[in-house]
Design goal:
The protein is an alpha/beta fold and 509 residues long. Helix content is 34%, strand content 24%.
Length: 509
């Protein structure tokens, strides 16, 4: 028998969620030994299609063939037996188990009985080492940075000797050096004939690593082809149905009084003697490698973590904040990096999430909340940020990953904060919505708010920030003015001139 042309063939796939078509007659094919990118706006249906392939969701209609044979993948277990492994967009590890236990979790649970722990750790160590990483398999997963957790996810998928590997936004939490090693791993797997489906919002990556690409829009395929025959602009047009003219909208600069002043901020080894200020109308970037202390710095300002020492002033008044709640009350808004853990409450509706921090302004005269007013505000934000949700009352947990991120952001627009801290606000967000987020940031700045913007995407930092603090190993290594902003200057400050080799990613930041 001849080998099949396609390792994966999905034909006419349709999937509805309570009347909403997530997928409509989608056809998707991947050849053996091919890296195939799957792209599209937030909510286009990428994760849903891949969850159907892995057995996590059931299709309503359509046919799936693996290596030419029609199959019914009725649960993740049968997906795994067919050689399909998936790395989810949202982490799926068990935090209270060790690295090794997580890697072999599925083997353990299906075999039961006694296991040889020594062998478990040895094998895990070999697997991780083989991928070029150094993680102690005895560590608990909760002790690892998000980047290392991702490495464990990948190791886990590979331990299953998958023939079809699906990665749903694998690089969102990785540092550039780690992205490079991931790509090396993927190229090696490809040589071994493994088919890889690669979901990403970073088109540069898609064009670097993928052989082919399929574009989804509103649950339908709007284009497919070989990456060498396509241009990023073509793909963007297929994704959003129009051309993107400006990525970074212009803003009239009107810098006012000082909003925030941080002096000698310290917290453990992660934040060392950090001093800077933000002024009204200013977008201040914080750049640096993952682990450089960016997140820890803003968490200490927001009182999400206790600081060891340091002085913080907001609008000229010294703050003695003891909790995030107090910070919000004094006028600081915060969109955390980990949206699932801290950014949104998944079980609540879009409206409840969005209106939470502004309860004061939607309270009626008699203290009760005006639901219609809330709904109106929420509807407007849904429209502006193009949040794909059926209604203001949809539960956030049912939204796609990128749309959850937009809800975490929407919370702070329209509040009466004077400072807003955004930690990687565009992670996992599609290109069209990114521009919309930049517009909103500009609007807030024009209204006279101070903005702190953390991002690992240097281009984005250069595109929207007025001034950039670059951190390295917990301390400020440089502060760059608008005219000094370039990728080279930021990178140089981030890694330190003398440093050429390993990048430290032990803690997230
Ligand atoms: N369990 C669910 N219940 C209800 N609706 C769902 C569910 N899962 C997905 N959806 C809806 O299906 C559509 C497609 O979502 P999906 O997660 O596949 O998008 P995506 O392309 O992966 O987006 P992103 O880039 O944001 O991750 C969205 O409108 C989403 O709200
Ligand atoms: Mg998704």
């Amino acid at each position: 028998m001849l080998p099949a042309d396609y390792s994966v063939e999905m034909v006419g796939i349709t999937k509805e969620f309570g009347g909403v078509h997530a997928l409509r007659e989608v056809s998707f094919r991947v050849r053996p030994g091919e890296i195939h990118a799957l792209v599209g706006e937030n909510g286009a249906g990428k994760s849903t299609l891949m969850k159907i392939l892995s057995g996590a969701y059931q299709k309503d209609e359509g046919v799936v063939r693996i290596e030419g044979k029609e199959v019914e993948i009725s649960n993740p277990h049968s997906g795994r037996q067919l050689g399909i492994a998936i790395i989810y967009q949202e982490f799926a590890l068990v935090p209270d188990l060790t690295v090794a236990e997580n890697i072999y979790l599925d083997h353990l649970s299906s075999r039961g009985g006694i296991i040889n722990k020594g062998r478990l750790y040895r094998q895990s160590e070999e697997l991780i080492g083989g991928l070029g990483f150094d993680i102690n398999p005895r560590k608990m997963v909760w002790q690892l940075s998000v980047a290392y957790q991702q490495v464990v996810e990948i190791t886990k998928a590979l331990s299953e000797e998958a023939r079809i590997l699906i990665l749903d936004e694998p690089t969102a939490v990785l540092a550039p050096k780690e992205v490079k090693s991931l790509f090396e791993i993927l190229r090696r797997l490809k040589e071994q004939g493994v088919s890889i489906v690669y979901i990403s919002h970073r088109l540069e990556e898609v064009f670097e690593i993928a052989d082919s690409v399929t574009v989804l829009k509103d649950g339908q395929v709007t284009g497919e082809g070989k990456t060498e025959q396509m241009k990023p602009d073509d793909v963007i047009r297929m994704m959003i149905g129009r051309k993107l003219t400006t990525m970074f909208p212009e803003r009239e600069l009107r810098i006012g009084e000082e909003i925030l002043r941080v002096e000698g901020l310290n917290r453990g080894k992660e934040v060392r003697d950090v001093s800077f200020s933000v002024r009204a109308g200013e977008v201040l970037g914080i750049a640096g490698l993952v682990g450089s202390g960016r997140t820890e710095t803003v968490r200490a300002i927001f009182a999400a973590d206790k600081r060891d020492s340091g002085r913080i002033e907001l609008c000229g008044k010294e703050l003695q904040l003891k909790s995030p709640r107090e910070s919000v009350r004094s006028g600081i808004g915060f969109v955390p990096e980990d949206r699932k853990g801290q950014g949104v409450i998944l079980s609540m509706s879009v409206r409840e999430n969005v209106t939470m921090p502004r309860l004061r302004s939607v309270m009626g005269w008699f203290g009760f909340i005006k639901k219609t007013k809330e709904q109106r505000i929420t509807e407007e934000l849904i429209k502006r940020l193009r949040i794909k949700a059926r209604s203001t009352e949809s539960a956030v947990t049912d939204l796609s990953g990128g749309n959850q991120q937009k809800v975490a952001l929407a919370k702070w627009f329209g509040t009466d904060s004077s400072l807003i801290i955004l930690d990687e606000p565009t992670r996992g967000v599609d290109v069209g919505a990114k521009v919309e987020i930049y517009n909103l940031i500009n609007e807030l700045a024009a209204r006279g708010l101070g903005i702190i913007f953390i991002s690992s995407e240097t281009i984005e930092v250069i595109g929207i920030c007025d001034r950039v603090v670059v951190m390295r190993q917990g301390a400020i290594s440089d502060i760059l003015d608008k005219e000094q902003l370039s990728e080279e200057n930021i990178m140089r400050a981030a890694i330190g001139r003398s440093r050429s080799s390993a990048v430290d990613i032990r803690t997230s930041g």
